[in-house]
Amino acid sequence: MSELPGELLYTKDHEWLRREDDGTVSIGVTDHAQAALGDLVYVELPEVGQDVTEGGDMAVVESVKAASDVYSPIDGIVAAVNDVLADDPETINTEPYDAGWIVKITPSGDIDESALLTPDAYQALLDEE
Amino acid sequence: MGSKTPLYDKHVEAGARIVDFGGWDMPLHYGSQKDEHHAVRTNAGLFDVSHMTIVDLKGERVRDFLRYLVANDVAKLQDAGKALYTSMLNEVGGVIDDLIIYFMTESWFRLVVNAATRDKDLAWIRKQAQAFDVAVNERAELAMIAVQGPNARQLAAPCIDSEWREQALDLKLFTGMEAGDLFVARTGYTGEDGWEILMPAAQAPVIWDRLLAAGVVPCGLGARDTLRLEAAMNLYGSDMDETISPLEAGLAWTVAWEPADRDFIGRKPLEVMRANPDKRRFVGLLLEDKGVLRNHQRVVVDGVGEGEITSGGFSPTIGRSIALARVPAGDYDSAHVDVRGKLLNVRIVKTPFVRNGQVRIEL
User: Fold this and answer.
1) How do residues B252-292 score in pLDDT, each as one tens digit?
2) Distance between CA atoms of residues A73 and A70, nearest Å
3) pLDDT score of B156 more than 80
4) Of A24, B39, B74, B243, which one is least surrounded by beta carbons within 10 A?
5) Which of B37, B222, B290 is facing A65, going by the closest CB pair?
6) How many domains does chain A have?
7) Which residue of A lies nearest to B225 if distances are taken between CA atoms?
8) pLDDT digit string (tens) for B9-33?
9) Of B162, B177, B13, nearest to B110 (Cα)?
10) Inter-residue contact A20 to A111 (CB < 8 Å)
11) Number of residue pairs across A and B with CB atoms under 8 Å?
12) Whole domain around residue A53: which residue ranges?
C-alpha cells in the first residue's frame, strides 16, 4: 500500500505537487513511483532559472533498473533544485514527499488544477493499475 | 500470467516484486535490489534459477556429439562432475546460446541453457543430435537454486545430506556432483564463490526455507544482473546473439581452436573472423562523469568510430556506472558515451570490475 498525503496534487505520471508559501510549487515523484523504480542511484537536475513547460521533461531519475523522465506538470521557471539528491538520490526512496522533492517551480501563470489529480483521483488511478 | 517455478509462492511470501522474464513470473527484488547485491558480495544470497533449462544428453557418442555442437572442446572434461562454459554457434558463427556443460559419465552429459532461448535451443540440439544417436531429455521437473557469496557454501552445507556434505564442501571451482536427489555444483553468475543446486521440484520450497532460516538473503533478477555485470559475465540477448560471433563478445576464451582438425558448427566462419584485424573489441567501460550508462547507448571513439553499450548500469559495489560495450578495433583507452545527447567521458578498463568482493579496476 503506498502512502498518499492528502494535501498534495498528483499527475497521471506519478508525480506530486505542493504549493509552497513562497508561491513556488514543489514537485517530486510519488511513493508508488519510487517503489516501481527501485533503488535510485542518480538524479539529473535542471538548471535554476531554466524555463519548463507543461508536459516537457525537466529531470531524470535513474534507478539500478532504469532511467525515467520527470515531466513538468506546469509552465514556469525552475526556482530551486534539490542538491541533496546529487549525493543521496535514495532520499527519493526513503522520503518521496518531503526531503525527496526534486524541483521547485515558479509558475508562469495560474495553475490549471483540472489537469491535475486529487488524492482520491490518484488513488483510483493506482487501483486501476 | 506466465510460467511459475516451484518457488513462486515463496517469492510472494517474501514480498517479491514479480516481473515477466522470458515468459516466467520471476522476482525482480524483495524490497531493495542494492541490499540484495551487497548481501551476495559480503555474505550470502540465494536466487531461484529454476526457469533455466536443464537438458540431459545420453548416448554412446555423446562426447563426439558435443565436440561438434559447441565451440569449446568437451575433450577437456576428463574428471566426473567437471563443468565447461561454452557457446553454441550457428553455421555462420553467431551465438545461438551460451551454456554450461557438466560431464556426468562417458554416456551422460548435462547442459544448462538459458530460459528465454529454451525452444530454439532444444530444437537445434535435437536436430543436430540425430546423426549421433544421442537422446535429448529436458529435465523440466528439476528446480534450481543458486546460493552465492563468501559464506554461501558454509550456510548452505546443512541442506546437503551428511553423507555427501564434506565432499560437496571439497568441490573444486567449476565442478559438480550428485548428492542423493540433489546435484550440487560450485558454479554461479555473480563473481562470488557458491553453489548452484539442482533438485526435485518438491524439495525446492523446503531448501528455500532452510536457507532463509540460516540467514541467506533472497535475491531477485535485479541483483543477479548487477552482480553479473560487475563480474563481466555475458548476458545472452544483450551482449551477444545469433548475429554476433563469440570473438566480438569477449568469448574468445570459450573457443577451443586446438586440435585444428576438430570440426565444430561455425568453425569456418569463425576462423575467417579470427584473422580479421578489424573485428570489434568487447570492453569494459567505467563512467568518469556522473550519470548511468545503459544498454544501447552510443559509444563514440574520437577519430576511430562508434560502438554500442551492450550491458550498462550502476555498480553498487563501486558506486559508479559501468558497462560492457562492443567498440571499433583500435588502440585507445578512453571514449565518450552519448547519454541523452550529452557526451560523457568513459575509460576502457580490464574486466572483471569486481571479483570475490574486491573491486578489480583502478578508480
Assistant:
1) 999 999 999 999 999 999 999 999 999 999 999 999 999 99
2) 9
3) yes
4) B243
5) B222
6) 1
7) A65
8) 999 999 999 999 999 999 999 999 9
9) B177
10) no
11) 37
12) 9-108
Predicted TM-score (pTM) above 0.90: yes
Q: Is residue A114 part of a domain?
A: no
Determine, yes or no, domain membership for A119.
no
Closest approach of chain A CAs to the CA of B100, in angstroms?
27
Is there a domain that residue A126 lies in? no
Q: Is residue A81 part of a domain?
A: yes
A42: closest chain B residue by CA? B291
Which residues of chain B neighbour A65 with C-beta distances below 8 Å?
Answer: 28, 33, 222
Digit-coded pLDDT (tens) for A90-114: 999 999 999 999 999 999 999 988 9
Give the mean model confidence (pLDDT) for residues B52-66: 98
CATH number, residue A46: 2.40.50.100
* Nearest CB to B292; choose among A35, A62, A86: A62
Averaged pLDDT for residues B324-339: 98
ipTM for the assembly: 0.88
